[in-house]
Amino acid sequence: MNALLKQSLAGLRILLVLTVLTGVLYPLGVWAVSRLPGLQANAEGSVVEVDGRAVGSDLIGIDPVAEDPARDPWFHTRPSAVALDLDGDGSADNLGPADGSISMGSNKGAFDEDLVAAVEDRRATIADREDVEPSQVPPDAVTASASGLDPHISPAYAELQVPRVARVTGLSEDRVRALVEENTDGRGLGVLGEPGVNVLKLNLAVTAAG
């Protein structure tokens, strides 16, 4: 009986210690670190505000929808496997804004027939929108990221969209390219990954310049 009591008390002490460590001290430590200069914005979701109003997050890519597709002034993000159903056909749109409440990929292999068909459909749609040959459409324009909410596009995809955005907004192509350059993030630590263009910040810059 004494052995059982001792084991129970030891288990209770361990439970109390771990509860304090993992349920109190660790969360407080994480919170304290998130308050450090340079980290607070990320901890709060990196919300982007214009005139005091939240317009999105620079960590989440949501594809903008043009009121008039024939006069589309926006740079567009990568497609998403969790796109919304805007045309009401009961299935996610092949190109279009993602559902920001969900983050996931398609989980389809490179040789999946549905995925191959979706990629070819996206390629044709984008080529028509940008008035270029399908072979000129870069890979990230037709493939979804693992999260489905990638806020960045490649400089090549941004460059493909420059002539259309310049034509619709009335800005010069040189001016639009300068805005693309200003909103291009370099490689992490100078060597990790590839440069990426933040679509939300770029569209806000284009709107402000127009």
Automatic annotation (TrEMBL):
It is a single-pass membrane protein. Its main location: membrane. One of its GO terms (molecular function) is ATP binding. The chain crosses the membrane at residues 12-33. Keywords: ATP-binding, Cell membrane, Ion transport, Membrane, Nucleotide-binding, Potassium, Potassium transport, Transmembrane, Transmembrane helix, Transport. It is found in: Cell membrane. Pfam families: KdpC. Part of the high-affinity ATP-driven potassium transport (or Kdp) system, which catalyzes the hydrolysis of ATP coupled with the electrogenic transport of potassium into the cytoplasm. This subunit acts as a catalytic chaperone that increases the ATP-binding affinity of the ATP-hydrolyzing subunit KdpB by the formation of a transient KdpB/KdpC/ATP ternary complex. The system is composed of three essential subunits: KdpA, KdpB and KdpC. This is Potassium-transporting ATPase KdpC subunit.
